[in-house]
């Protein structure tokens, strides 16, 4: 670990410890030290854009994290231009002008979080492209999940200027969002500082349940052109039906059959946004029995027909009026 970060993270001196300690019933307490705190959020977004999406750019006086959940995007960050692929992220510092556009071939999904943080450690994220691993993605997923229980949706409106609390938010949801975001940033800092010497996180080792889940999801993704039965999945990954159901229920809250339907719908939505196939071709490519069946399933889960979804996502992908952005 670098000497600079060691100095920042070093324990307080003995005199400082004595000053901050408090004795209770004969025991000496230790005040825990924070090196990075986030107390204020501005926006939480999950965007599904078309392959022709383009955002003209903005600058603001707070940090913004942009993570590519799917697709490829071209980003301008100050004077730099960089290409971000699925799994990449960039964190724009305050007042940095930034713009983003799709590559014209793939329809990107983006997670965007904006927040205030005055820790000097945040400067270590400047001028870098970050790779977000599985544990980091869990933090982002938890932030989005908690946000739905705390703030009013939608989270795909680029014109939103803040977050509005629900009348009956979930217990401790805001604190969970803050903790997950702080954990994400601290984990990245620690791993980037000592990639070869840092011992693995105790929860990073994959147990049997995670191996089973990953193998089953990989099988589903590789066979989008046909409908796999639960027995086929069990036979390939080597587990019984009850075990497979328990693993999926614990990881996703859904059974394997329901999860497979959601995967196909997410792929269908991506294909619609890419605009290379009509609805009949998409239905055939994903092994729906007919375009009517595809439309019925799509509307049941998404609340709108494929045609309505196509119109709505095109509308969201259009750049808002330039007057909306504060580019001072």
Plain-language structure description:
- The protein is of the alpha+beta class.
- The chain has two domains: 40-193, Jelly Rolls (Sandwich); 208-316, Orthogonal Bundle (Arc Repressor Mutant, subunit A).
- Helix content is 41%, strand content 17%.
- It is built from eleven helices and eleven strands.
- Helix 3 (134-148) runs antiparallel to helix 4 and helix 5 packs across helix 6.
- The radius of gyration is 23 Å and the shape is globular.
- It starts with a helix and ends in an 11-residue tail after the last helix.
- The relative contact order is 0.12.
List SSEs in N-to-C order.
Answer: HHEEEEEEEEEEEHHHHHHHHH
- Assigned CATH architecture of the largest domain: Sandwich
CATH-wise, what's the superfamily of the largest domain?
A: Regulatory protein AraC
Rg over alpha carbons: 23 Å
Most strands sheet: 5 strands, antiparallel
- What topology, given as strand order, has the largest sheet? 3-10-5-8-11
Mean pLDDT: 83
